[in-house]
Specification:
Elements: H1 8-20, H2 23-30, H3 34-48, E1 53-56, E2 59-62, H4 64-92, E3 96-100, H5 102-119, E4 125-129, E5 143-148, E6 156-161, E7 164-169, E8 191-194, H6 200-207, E9 218-220, H7 223-231, E10 236-240, H8 241-249, E11 254-255, E12 261-262, E13 266-271, H9 279-292
Parallel strand pairs: 3-4, 3-5, 8-9, 8-10
Antiparallel strand pairs: 1-2, 5-13, 6-13, 7-10, 7-11, 7-12
Helix pairs in contact: 1-2, 1-3, 1-4, 2-3, 5-8
InterPro entries: LysR-type_TF_proteobact-type, LysR_HTH_N, LysR_subst-bd, WH-like_DNA-bd_sf, WH_DNA-bd_sf
Keywords: DNA-binding, Transcription, Transcription regulation
Family: Belongs to the LysR transcriptional regulatory family.
Length: about 300
């Protein structure tokens, strides 16, 4: 059903002027000029086809039509204001849903998440692990953490973590029958491949070594699987520093050699711009960057 409604700004101007019986005080309340209020009132009167105020020297009074209009206008504006506040509260309440790549969620986010829960014990967090780009218009997601170039149209994007890339292995491989003492020793070991990482061919060129079959070995489509294989002693992985910082610190993996490559991509937080004003999103975003600052 089509509704015949007057312009909202004109109605707000009328409400303020009717309460103050002054265009000047109404303008102060609405943070506009007195001329703007006068123009809005005149536009509303023309839309209604009725005068709402009697303009006298240094005085302003409501007409009979204006007096009868006031209660309904105030009730309507109060209802709209209350509905808006409820919507904003509901938008800020409820669980916080984070979308992150499986590897980042398991290797970096989840191990740190308890610190956020301790700080905000009343906030429920849901982590969705997926490599797909979030459709914020259709999916119930508050914030996405993505790995890439940072170019996602219509989203506010902030770089969270950069990285470098280097080989890692289980500590036991340093002392086995073919110890890893220099990059050339890779030819005696299984290479672990990650579809989301720089290839072994690129790393070997940077290291200046030849004679390593960079196509052989195990291949995975998720970085967390690649790193788990390395921690199980199944071979050598090219790792993104962000994902292995905790494992290296705990001794589950060791960093090999002195050759590392800067990553061309990075981890970003992304969401529609107005999402970042939500208290729960702002709290999580600020915590993420605090944690990122602690990452080696």
């Amino acid at each position: 059903m089509s509704r015949r409604l007057p312009p909202l700004n004109a109605v707000r101007a009328f409400d303020a002027a009717a309460r103050h019986l002054s265009f000047t005080k109404a303008a102060d309340e609405l943070h506009v000029t007195q001329a703007a209020v006068s123009h809005q009132i005149k536009a509303l009167e023309e839309w209604l086809g009725l005068p709402l105020f009697r303009r006298m020297n240094r005085a302003l009074a409501l007409t009979e039509a204006g007096q009868s209009y006031v209660p309904s206008v105030r009730e309507a504006l109060d209802t709209l204001s209350q509905a808006t506040e409820r919507l904003i509260r509901n938008d800020s309440a409820g669980p916080l849903t984070i979308s992150a790549m499986p590897s980042f969620a398991s290797k970096w986010l989840v191990p740190r998440l308890m610190r956020f829960q301790k700080r905000y014990p009343d906030m429920d967090v849901r982590v969705q692990s997926t490599s797909q780009i979030v459709d914020f218009a259709r999916q119930d997601v508050d914030l996405a953490i993505r790995f890439g170039s940072g170019h996602w149209p219509d989203l506010q994007v902030e770089r969270l973590l950069t990285e470098d890339i280097f080989p890692v292995s289980h500590p036991s491989l340093l002392k086995n029958a073919n110890p890893l003492t220099c990059p050339e020793d890779l030819r005696h070991h299984t290479l672990l491949h990650d579809d989301y990482n720089i290839s072994w061919a690129v790393w070997c060129r940077a290291a200046g070594i030849e004679g390593v079959d960079v196509e052989r070995g195990l291949r995975f489509d998720d970085s967390s699987f690649t790193l788990q294989a390395a921690m199980s002693g199944h071979g050598i992985a090219l790792a993104r520093g962000v994902l292995v910082a905790d494992d290296i610190a705990a001794g589950r993996l060791v960093r090999l050699f002195d050759v590392h490559l800067p990553g061309s991509l990075a981890y970003y937080v992304a969401a529609p711009p107005h999402y970042f004003t939500r208290p729960k999103v702002k709290a999580f975003r600020d915590w993420l960057f605090e944690e990122a600052g602690k990452t080696p």
